[in-house]
Amino acid sequence: MVTAMRRRGFTLIEILIVMTIVSILVSIAVPLYQKSVIRAKESVLRNNLFTLRTVIDEYTFDKKKAPQSLEDLVREGYLRQIPIDPMTGSDKTWVVIMEDALTSVDQSEPGIYDVRSGSDRISLEGTPYSEW
């Protein structure tokens, strides 16, 4: 008596269908993941800018003059360290905006008035990060 051997496994068509479904799901998931990563970085950037601007104002109010560099904020204990710009990945790329000598608190020594991101990329809103 000859018994027929049954082969177990998937056919080529079944594997192709599964691979097609997986590739469709991946093509949908990857862009959503990338946007969520960018949104998270934008949120960190907003928070870092708010913190830096608040600390610059506090320093200016306390010392009666604006800081000359971001390192002054660390040296005087207003920050533990300069935050990293999440769009550039460095704490050295912040763009500082110096105050006008005529409108500064201490006219003999104008200092930092504002700080912006050093990134040249555009946000999900359509505005450059360097304008935030």
Uncertain runs with pLDDT below 50, 5 residues or more? none
Morphology call: rod-shaped
> What is the CA-based Rg, rounded?
27 Å
User: What is the string of SSEs from the N terminus onward?
Assistant: HHEE
Separation of termini?
83 Å
Beta-strand portion reads 5-15%
Count of DSSP strands = 2
Number of helices: 2
Could you tell me the mean pLDDT? Answer: 90
- Going across the major beta sheet, what is the strand order? 1-2
Helical content (DSSP H or I, runs of 4+)? 40-55%
Going by helix content, strand content and strand pairing, the class is mainly alpha
Count of all domains? 1
Largest sheet: 2 strands, antiparallel
Tell me what the structure shows.
The protein has helices spanning about 10-65, 70-75, and strands spanning about 95-100, 110-115. The model has no long low-confidence stretch (mean pLDDT about 90). The chain contains two helices and two strands. A two-stranded antiparallel sheet has the order 1-2. The radius of gyration is 27 Å and the shape is rod-shaped. It has about 130 residues and is mostly helical. It has one domain. About 15% of the residues are buried.
